[in-house]
Design a protein that fits this description.
This protein has a single domain (11-137), classed as RbsD-like domain (RbsD-like fold). It is 32% helix and 17% strand. The chain has helices spanning 11-19, 35-38, 50-58, 85-98, 109-118; strands at residues 25-29, 42-45, 71-74, 105-107, 121-125, 134-137. The chain is α/β, with parallel strands linked by helices. A six-stranded mixed sheet has the order 2-5-1-6-3-4. The mean pLDDT is 97. The relative contact order is 0.32. Helix 3 (50-58) runs parallel beside helix 4.
Length: 144
């Protein structure tokens, strides 16, 4: 047991996050996503919802501030302007953890699949709400 870590900071998640470098992408996906067939590296957190997993990740890694869009969301098919409640909850987590507004940018579903397949890793959550899928790009962890 370690101090200051959440129950979601499993050994597998900690290893994945610590192994990522600046600019690597991480896909955080819902229970409907084909994570096993897509992932280069897979961590399963089946008992957790997406916003909680995102919060656990962003507690340990910053978003990349060298790129214009370090956080992406899967677009709703046929309604790209719609932002599902689960994505709105993720937006609140991102803004709180980053201490500033970092808008989740839309990404068409098939483009999201391609990016996820190329991502450093995928974290499969137990999120049941549709479109509970986002990509984040890791930034530089500066010395304290």
């Amino acid at each position: 047991m370690l101090k200051a870590l959440s129950r979601l900071h499993t050994p597998d998640l900690l290893h994945l996050l610590a192994s990522m470098g600046h600019g690597d992408e991480l896909a955080l996906v819902d229970a409907h996503f084909p994570a096993v067939s897509m992932a280069r590296r897979l961590v399963r957190l089946d008992a957790a919802d997406l916003p909680d997993v995102l919060d656990a990740c962003l507690a340990l890694i910053p978003l990349d501030d060298f790129v214009p869009d370090p956080a992406l969301r899967m677009e709703v098919v046929g309604r790209p302007e719609e932002i599902p409640e689960v994505q709105r909850a993720c937006q609140q987590v991102i803004d709180r953890r980053e201490g500033r507004a970092v808008p989740l940018q839309p990404l068409e579903r098939h483009a999201f699949y391609r990016r996820s397949h190329e991502a450093f890793g995928i974290v499969a959550t137990g999120e049941q709400r549709p479109y509970g899928c986002i990509l984040v790009k890791k930034g530089v962890v500066l010395p304290v």
